[in-house]
Amino acid sequence: MEKKAVKVPPAKSATAPAPAPGRLRRSAKPRLQLAPESWVDAAIDVLASAGIAGLRVEVLAKRCGVTKGSFYWHFRDRQALLDAVLERWREGRIRDIEKTTAGLPGAEIEQLHHVIEVYGANRNRKGMAIELAVRDWARHDAQAAAVVEAVDLYRLECTQRLFIAKGMSAADAKSRSLLLYACVFGLSLMHYDTFDSNLPELKRRIAERIVAN
Predict the structure, then answer these.
(1) What's the helix, strand, coil split of the chain in %, to 5?
(2) What is the Cα–Cα distance from 48 to 125, expressed in whole angstroms?
(3) Extents of the domains making up the chain
(4) How far apart are alpha carbons 110 and 5 in whole angstroms?
(5) Using an 8 Å Cβ cutoff, are 42 and 75 in contact?
(6) pLDDT tens-digit profile of 6-21?
(7) Among residues 92, 113, 100, 105, which one has the least CA distance to residue 44?
(8) Among the four 9, 67, 120, 129, which has the fewest Cβ within 10 Å?
(9) What is the pLDDT of residue 14?
(10) How far apart are the two ends of the chain, measured CA to CA in Å?
């Protein structure tokens, strides 16, 4: 009696077939990278809300949705980021000072009123929060203190020139310039909404006293 041949199925390969190239490209997730400027932007936001103590690499990485490795691709360490934050703040303040105090000859009084209005306004709360955070940082850090001092001196010199241009002596212009910034920054720290029923008029009278000869 003739035996029937038994067909043996081919053995399955232990190696899974390679996915199609198109499928591989679709499933791979690109690693998110941030530019150095984006890290500095995020650092300034954290500085404004949490102060220098809250400005940590792991906090920034989580906030930006990336790993800490992305940070160290651009910055040697946390101090390198802090240096970049200070430089960004210094450059921004210098540009703002020049823009705010630049005026046409003969319009110095109007320009001084503009300076008081800009720095005394409560519209840019984030900007004031950053300013205060940097100043608090400067109380404990010599490098930050040097940057803040340089910015303040430039502010005072620019407004002093405006007072001199409107006819004040150098000594009077220097004291009046210091009085101007002491007033506007001091007001930013105070709560006085109920002090007077007409705050705009009160601020106008203060500005007149600061600018008057």
Answers:
(1) 70, 0, 30
(2) 10
(3) 86-211
(4) 108
(5) no
(6) 555 555 544 445 555 5
(7) 92
(8) 9
(9) 46
(10) 131
